[in-house]
């Protein structure tokens, strides 16, 4: 137990790590809270009151009543929309009296029953959504009975179709197995209840990624501390204690991963419960319409428990395998890298393999597949195992159990027997080839960065990535986009009255073309007219397409007109040209995140390497040289980053400019459709310059932050974990999309296009730039103060 | 620190190699020598609306209203090609879970459905993403083992796709490096479709600024030649007619400054529509003698019956289908109510009255050695009905279809 206590203490005594866990939880919970908001709002108290009333009625009567009340409230809403004029009300009567007639009443009499709800629009809408929800649930209850009753007949019919009737085929076996699975369930009682919370839980399988990252961080701390302290050899001196120690380390990692899941997912369930509510937990999960196809006897409460247990199982499997990797590969970073590749592979298989594909086993027997609780219980499907359908959940749990136990057993075995990866001849060869450093500080720091920390390779990688990002060849455009682009070129430039005239003229031309030239018709013979008809047929689709494109341009011009009416001389520029620069979504953010995670490898050891080896104290003995060393290191890092920026980030806007042939740079920013309502004066060129500058400053901030953390954490491994997590978290905050939070993030420089679209104010951009510059300078000054003290 | 450096070094090397390995140089595409199956020219229609149909001994596959259907000859019913017992195959339902759901086609005028080596190939929306994006997928004939071959079909006109001698031929709208736009006829070996970015071969490229292809399939592969019309973009409706030699890669101008639209093929001869917007004439082109001649049987028919619309929608060695037009005084009321079946001597064989839907591209399919004319019946708008007319019956003047209705 003592061993376990010490292993647990290793993590619990790391406040930075605990803070990271809290921060991750906060980010996940905020994201979940926002997702909850996106669900249709149904007033819970009102729902319960109406439900109670309906439960007192026989089912059929309740259904009719719900439909009637829903129609009544809907008609009241429509009546308001049609206005109070006699003409509007007449139109309303003509269109909707049929609905009232269904209930054997005139429209006026029918509406008079709902007079009480006429005044309060908000209350009426709430009640309407309650009637809608309850109506759907009651209908679902009826349809579920039919669904289960009809299954044998449906199965027989499907099996009789020639293409599904081959006894040895996957489709035939799948139909038979589906029938057995559904029938084994019996017919669970469907009890309608408030279910918004149930629908929200377990939807986002990506959340498990955060658990994996935290588990990886915990593994680095649990397994690499002895390595970095030089205590590893000491641990191996007592042969009999090795197995116990390995088992304890393995157990500690599994314990932490389980706690992470419980903490993160438990929080989400709590939020869903408080914010949305689950209704009666004892009712069958099939009572929630989303889970009609669930073939497990499970209650709603059981589903909520499974929404923690399944991700927890995935986390335990990952933790067990990670522990094995750390023991077997011995090198913490090789193990962490392998585990990261394993996660990436799992994600890619889950994301890109199809549910019905031949390789669907890889999609389901997968850590993300196991964590996707909503899909596992709401969608019925089978694994295609050499033509045999196999249930997903039992298979993945069985495979997981094997991996879990195997990871533990092999881990303990390798640790106690000292089995693992040995230094290869390549490593020994590397030792012989040495490039020597220098006593000059600038040269030595460059040596440390480019040779010691493989900066040259990183530059190489960025060069390849940057080159691959450039569009060197052709770009494929749909017919509609091509037409849109060419039309856009015809009216490119400042919008004037002539622009509108061009649209009208073009539409007239198209109308004339569509009618086949009526002016000439009188002179045509019957035969010629017939032939003309053929020509019109051939052309008609093309004309329709042109008309659709013209309409699209017209809608854009209408939007631009709002800016023009404010006196802004907006230009027309097609979205094909502007979107890649100003509407690139989060693509640029993701690219930047990838680059900074790569840079972590190289930049993080700049200060921690000396601190870890104890050289830091020696270096600081020369009091007047501290500043020189400090600024030289910063200069070297900055130059390195500048190179990386030019190689990777800069080609993007340049490439876009070249490919999309933007020429209208002096046009106001409002010429871009998504910025049409933006306040403030700025040209497209001005915005682009600020954007490039903003990305550079943001990036510099991250580089300085890595330097600061490198000095503060004093260990390479800790620096890299902390830097990577902080950088990822910062980008995540930006990606979540809260305007204020996004603006506060250091990565805001990379996302100004999105921030500008959301905030609608141009002054936000220079403020973000100044804020990021301020943070960057503050980090550097703080670090300098600490370093030179 | 040394071990750390080594680890990082190894990881970076692996990363560089993996990135570099993705950037292979494209090679000239080749198909297996055994793939000699020609494109079935009777499936070709110069009309832009294509309703691709695949026929097997047991039934027919086709795409209608966002779903892939299977018309079973055994049960005489039509079903969505989805064997999920609980699936309702309805758009209102969670349709992305339905295996038969192909969604709206966003890439061109028509959809694509092909069969090759016992597998179905079709264009469908991404089932894993809510966003509507078309993909090219392959699957077993029972709809299982769905595999994504082209992740994003942007710029690829799926309505122009066809299989010919082991290759997939299609048209793209591409912006070239110079910034100019061009429409391109390309091809890729069928078994390498999943590497379309690296392995596709541009056969013909036409700058779009001045010219464009007509809608529909503007090219037709016939044996080792590819025929296509390059139409001038403008009022004159003129164009050039070319032949591209698929084995040598040479291009030959066959006719210039006249609009010749490919209408179909009878045996080795191409049937062309010569049009300048109002005057239409049928021509035959013989690749062997490289001669254009008047398609007298069609033109004669046209002269005899001017009320019959000018275009033959389905031409084969046995007969041609002609549209009928209804004229009220000076006004042409409609053209799509009846079809006339005429033989190659210009004789009217029978009429398919008020039931055919010509825009659904009637096609000749061979099922168990028997030739059928496949069409979609009168219920097509409300529901799905496949109509099969035996060609032997049509030639004997009988137009009584076998109807396969939606279950």
Structural write-up:
The complex is a heterodimer of chains A (789) and B (407). Chain A is mainly α and 789 residues long. A two-stranded antiparallel sheet of chain A has the order 1-2. In chain A, helix 27 runs antiparallel to helix 33 (716-736) and helix 30 crosses helix 32. Chain A is globular and about 95 Å long. In chain B, the strands form 7 sheets. An 8-stranded mixed sheet of chain B has the order 1-2-3-4-31-30-29-28. In chain B, strands 13, 14, 15, 16 and 17 form a 5-stranded antiparallel sheet that branches. The radius of gyration of chain B is 23 Å and the shape is globular. The N and C termini of chain B lie far apart (71 Å). At the A-B interface, helix 7, helix 8, helix 14, helix 19 and helix 21 of A face helix 1, strand 7, strand 10 and strand 22 of B. Strand 3 (475-476) of chain A pairs antiparallel with strand 10 of chain B, so a sheet runs across the interface.
Topology:
The complex is a heterodimer of chains A (789) and B (407).
Chain A: H1 2-12, H2 15-37, H3 44-55, H4 59-81, H5 86-102, H6 107-112, H7 121-160, H8 170-184, H9 196-200, H10 207-229, H11 232-235, H12 242-275, H13 300-329, H14 332-352, H15 360-364, H16 367-371, H17 373-378, E1 382-385, E2 388-391, H18 392-417, H19 425-432, H20 441-452, H21 455-469, E3 475-476, H22 479-490, E4 493-494, H23 497-515, H24 518-521, H25 526-564, E5 571-572, H26 575-582, H27 587-603, H28 605-613, H29 615-619, H30 626-649, H31 651-660, H32 684-713, H33 716-736, H34 739-744, H35 752-759, H36 764-788
Antiparallel strand pairs in A: 1-2, 4-5
Helix pairs in contact in A: 1-12, 2-10, 2-12, 2-33, 3-7, 4-5, 4-7, 7-8, 10-12, 10-13, 10-14, 12-13, 12-18, 13-14, 13-18, 20-30, 21-30, 22-25, 23-25, 26-31, 27-32, 27-33, 28-32, 30-32, 32-33, 32-36
Chain B: H1 2-21, E1 53-55, E2 59-64, E3 67-72, E4 77-80, E5 113-116, E6 119-125, E7 134-140, E8 147-150, E9 156-164, E10 167-175, E11 181-189, H2 196-199, E12 201-207, E13 211-212, E14 219-222, E15 225-232, E16 239-245, E17 251-255, E18 259-266, E19 269-275, E20 280-286, E21 291-294, H3 296-304, E22 308-315, E23 319-324, E24 326-328, E25 331-334, E26 339-343, E27 348-352, E28 363-367, E29 370-376, E30 385-390, H4 391-395, E31 402-406
Parallel strand pairs in B: 4-31
Antiparallel strand pairs in B: 1-2, 2-3, 3-4, 5-6, 6-7, 7-8, 9-10, 10-11, 11-12, 13-15, 14-15, 15-16, 16-17, 18-19, 19-20, 20-21, 22-23, 23-26, 24-25, 26-27, 28-29, 29-30, 30-31
């Amino acid at each position: 137990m003592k061993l376990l206590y010490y292993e647990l203490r290793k993590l619990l005594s790391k406040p930075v790590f605990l803070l990271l866990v809290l921060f991750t939880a906060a980010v996940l919970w905020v994201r979940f809270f926002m997702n909850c908001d996106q669900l249709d709002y149904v007033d819970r108290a009102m729902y319960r009151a109406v439900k109670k009333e309906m439960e007192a009625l026989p089912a059929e009567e309740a259904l009719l009543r719900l439909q009637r009340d829903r129609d009544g409230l809907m008609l009241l809403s429509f009546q308001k929309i049609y206005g109070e004029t006699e003409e509007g009300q007449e139109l309303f009567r003509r269109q909707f009296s049929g609905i009232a007639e269904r209930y054997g009443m005139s429209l006026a009499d029918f509406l008079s029953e709902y007079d009480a709800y006429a005044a309060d629009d908000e209350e009426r809408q709430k009640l309407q959504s309650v009637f809608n929800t309850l109506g759907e649930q009651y209908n679902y209850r009826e349809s579920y009975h039919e669904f289960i009753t009809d299954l044998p007949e449906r199965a027989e019919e499907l099996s009789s179709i020639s293409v599904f009737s081959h006894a040895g085929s996957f489709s035939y076996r799948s139909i038979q197995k589906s029938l057995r699975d559904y029938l084994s369930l019996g017919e669970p009682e469907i009890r309608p209840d408030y279910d918004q919370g149930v629908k929200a839980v377990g939807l986002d399988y990506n959340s498990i990624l955060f658990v994996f990252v935290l588990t990886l961080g915990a593994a680095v701390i649990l397994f690499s501390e002895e390595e970095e302290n030089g205590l590893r050899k000491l641990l191996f001196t007592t042969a009999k204690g090795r197995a116990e120690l390995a088992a304890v380390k393995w157990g500690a990692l599994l314990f932490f991963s389980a706690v992470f899941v419980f903490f993160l997912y438990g929080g989400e369930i709590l939020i869903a419960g408080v914010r949305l509510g689950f209704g009666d937990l004892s009712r069958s999960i099939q009572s929630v319409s989303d889970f009609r196809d669930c073939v497990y006897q499970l209650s709603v409460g059981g589903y909520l428990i499974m929404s923690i247990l399944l991700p927890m199982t995935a986390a335990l499997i990952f933790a067990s395998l990670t522990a094995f990797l750390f023991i077997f590969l011995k090198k913490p970073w090789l193990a962490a890298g392998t585990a990261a590749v394993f996660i990436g592979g799992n994600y890619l298989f889950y994301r890109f393999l199809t549910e019905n594909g031949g390789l669907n086993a890889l999609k389901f027997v997968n850590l993300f597949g196991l964590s996707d609780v909503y899909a596992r219980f709401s969608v019925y499907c089978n694994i295609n195992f050499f033509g045999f359908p196999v249930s997903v959940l039992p298979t993945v749990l069985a495979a997981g159990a094997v991996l879990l136990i195997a990871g533990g057993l092999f881990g303990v075995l390798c640790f106690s027997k000292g089995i693992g990866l040995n230094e290869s001849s390549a490593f020994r060869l590397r030792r012989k080839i040495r490039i020597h450093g220098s006593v000059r500080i600038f040269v030595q720091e460059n040596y440390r960065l480019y040779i010691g920390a493989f900066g040259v390779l990183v530059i190489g990688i960025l060069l390849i990535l940057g080159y691959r990002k450039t569009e060197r060849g052709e770009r494929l455009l749909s017919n509609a986009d091509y037409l849109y682009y060419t039309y856009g070129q015809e009216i490119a430039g400042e919008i004037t009255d002539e622009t509108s005239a061009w649209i009208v003229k073009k539409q007239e031309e198209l109308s004339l073309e569509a009618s086949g030239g009526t002016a000439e018709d009188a002179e045509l013979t019957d035969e010629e007219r017939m032939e003309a008809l053929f020509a019109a047929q051939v052309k008609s689709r093309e004309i329709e397409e042109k008309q659709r494109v013209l309409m699209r341009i017209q809608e854009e011009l209408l939007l631009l007109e709002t800016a023009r009416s404010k006196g802004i001389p907006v230009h027309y520029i097609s979205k094909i040209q502007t979107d890649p620069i100003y509407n690139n979504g989060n693509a640029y953010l993701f690219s930047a995140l990838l680059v900074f995670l790569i840079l972590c490898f190289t930049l993080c050891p700049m200060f921690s390497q000396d601190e870890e080896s104890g050289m830091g104290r020696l270096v600081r003995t020369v009091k007047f040289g501290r500043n020189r060393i400090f600024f030289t290191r910063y200069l070297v890092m900055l130059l390195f980053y500048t190179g990386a920026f030019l190689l990777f980030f800069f080609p993007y806007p340049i490439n876009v400019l070249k490919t999309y042939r933007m020429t209208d740079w002096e046009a106001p920013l409002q010429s871009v459709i998504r910025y049409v309502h933006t306040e403030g004066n700025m040209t497209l060129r001005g915005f682009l310059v600020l954007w490039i500058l903003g990305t550079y400053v943001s990036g510099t901030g991250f580089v300085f932050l890595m330097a600061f953390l490198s000095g503060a954490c004093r260990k390479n491994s800790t620096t890299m974990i902390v830097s990577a997590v902080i950088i990822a978290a910062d980008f995540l905050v930006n990606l979540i999309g809260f305007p204020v939070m996004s603006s506060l993030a250091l990565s805001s420089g990379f996302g100004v296009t999105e921030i500008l679209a959301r905030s609608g104010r141009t002054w936000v951009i220079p403020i973000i730039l100044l804020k990021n510059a301020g943070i960057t300078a503050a980090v550097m000054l703080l670090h300098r103060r600490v370093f030179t003290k | 620190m040394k071990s750390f450096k080594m680890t990082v070094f190894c990881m970076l090397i692996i990363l560089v190699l993996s990135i570099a390995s993705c950037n292979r140089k494209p090679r000239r595409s080749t198909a297996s020598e055994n793939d000699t199956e020609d494109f079935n020219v009777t499936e070709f229609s110069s009309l832009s609306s294509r309703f691709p149909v695949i026929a097997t001994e047991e039934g027919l596959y086709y795409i209608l209203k966002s779903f892939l259907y299977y018309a079973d000859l055994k049960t005489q019913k039509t079903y969505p090609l989805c064997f999920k017992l609980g699936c309702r195959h309805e758009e209102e339902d969670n349709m992305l879970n339905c295996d038969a759901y192909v969604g709206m086609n966003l890439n061109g005028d028509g959809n694509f459905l092909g069969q090759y080596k016992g597998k179905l190939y079709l264009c469908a929306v991404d089932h894993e993403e809510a966003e509507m994006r078309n993909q090219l997928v392959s699957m077993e004939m029972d709809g299982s083992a769905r595999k994504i071959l082209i992740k994003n079909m942007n710029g690829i006109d799926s309505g122009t796709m066809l299989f010919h001698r082991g290759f997939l031929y299609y048209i793209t709208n591409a912006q070239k490096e110079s910034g100019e736009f061009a429409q391109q006829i390309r091809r890729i070996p069928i078994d390498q479709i999943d590497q379309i970015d690296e392995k596709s071969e541009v056969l013909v490229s036409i700058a779009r600024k001045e010219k464009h292809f007509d809608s529909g399939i503007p090219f037709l592969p016939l044996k080792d030649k590819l025929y296509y019309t390059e139409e001038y973009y403008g009022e004159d409706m003129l164009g050039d007619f070319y032949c591209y030699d698929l084995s040598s890669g040479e291009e030959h101008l066959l006719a210039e400054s006249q609009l010749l639209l490919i209408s179909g093929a009878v045996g080795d001869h191409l049937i062309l529509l010569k049009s300048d917007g109002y005057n239409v004439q049928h021509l035959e082109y013989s690749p062997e003698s490289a001669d254009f001649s008047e398609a007298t049987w069609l033109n004669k028919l046209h002269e005899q019956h001017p009320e019959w619309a000018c275009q033959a929608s389905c031409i084969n060695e046995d007969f041609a289908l002609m549209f009928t037009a209804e004229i009220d005084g000076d006004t042409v009321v409609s053209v799509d109510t009846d079809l006339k079946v005429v033989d190659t001597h210009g004789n009217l064989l029978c009429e398919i009255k008020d039931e055919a839907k010509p825009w659904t591209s009637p096609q000749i399919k061979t099922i168990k050695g028997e030739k059928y004319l496949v069409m979609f019946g009168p219920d097509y708008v409300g529901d799905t009905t496949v109509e099969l007319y035996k060609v032997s019956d049509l030639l004997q003047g009988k137009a009584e279809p076998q109807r396969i209705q939606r279950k």
